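Design a sequence for this backbone.
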């Protein structure tokens, strides 16, 4: 196994755990609702950011990537 496959597997597990914990934080009944919502939103945003490690083919073929690659900066 190379490093890219290990990073992909670990990042997928982390994203799944972050989304599971975010769902729990958003559904639990508690007095500290705002702090739970803020932490859940942070975990969701972080999960989206980490997902680049196991979805590289999507990011490389997206229209944004093609536009940036073809532009003359």
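Sequence:
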């Amino acid at each position: 196994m190379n490093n890219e496959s290990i990073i992909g597997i670990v990042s997928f597990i982390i994203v799944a755990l972050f989304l599971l914990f975010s769902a729990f934080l958003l559904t639990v009944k508690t007095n500290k609702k705002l702090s739970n919502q803020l932490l859940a939103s942070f975990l969701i945003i972080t999960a989206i950011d980490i997902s680049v490690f196991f979805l590289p083919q999507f990011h490389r073929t997206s229209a944004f990537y093609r536009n940036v690659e073809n532009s003359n900066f």
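The chain has one domain: 3-70.
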